[in-house]
């Protein structure tokens, strides 16, 4: 993923340039008003920047100098917003089917991301007959993620997808987002929360006042970072002076894991 954009929005000037890995999660991180969502809108093709280049793999989606501007609906980009934006009159299954039917087919009948795999990873099989109004906020977001994935995107954009959830549901949905890496597609994730960057990020782009001020790994760019812990009992780890519960952790001695509490 390659992004370069210059755009003026009233008195605000956006001037960003960054790259992201072919798979994994690139975190666009910074305070409110820094230009994160504006950048996401340019990548999605929802805003035409004054000057921009947007490319995913070998596919150039925007190049203002070359007069290339692929329409948003043809970009093969999935978007997950702060609110789920599901169709309230459709069941979960029919919301997922909408994403499935929107998928462009390079080869008839061929899809890279399978419906059953999405339902399994997001643990939404028991919700298929229900409607969005009967779901919790976290469940709605999981269905929204599933619908976006089933559209077979080349890039998944997540615009602060857990910011409207309470802490318990936020942590739950973050764990499901981390599991999306099995699908091997690039993701661009907007957040102002440092703990989300630590938990999910493979690559960090820090943006302030419309400009990229740092780019690299979360471990290299964020204070703190790697700490060592000692297992004191099954499911309990001591880090410094604190003992925390880590249920279900199955990792060999010496493994590096991300833990939030």
Automatic annotation (TrEMBL):
Residues 1-234 form the ABC transporter domain. One of its GO terms (molecular function) is ATP binding. SUPFAM superfamilies: P-loop containing nucleoside triphosphate hydrolases. The keyword Repeat does not apply. Pfam families: ABC_tran (PF00005). The keyword Nucleotide-binding applies. Keywords: ATP-binding, Nucleotide-binding. This is ATP-binding cassette domain-containing protein. It comes from Sphingomonas mollis. The lineage of its organism: Bacteria, Pseudomonadati, Pseudomonadota, Alphaproteobacteria, Sphingomonadales.
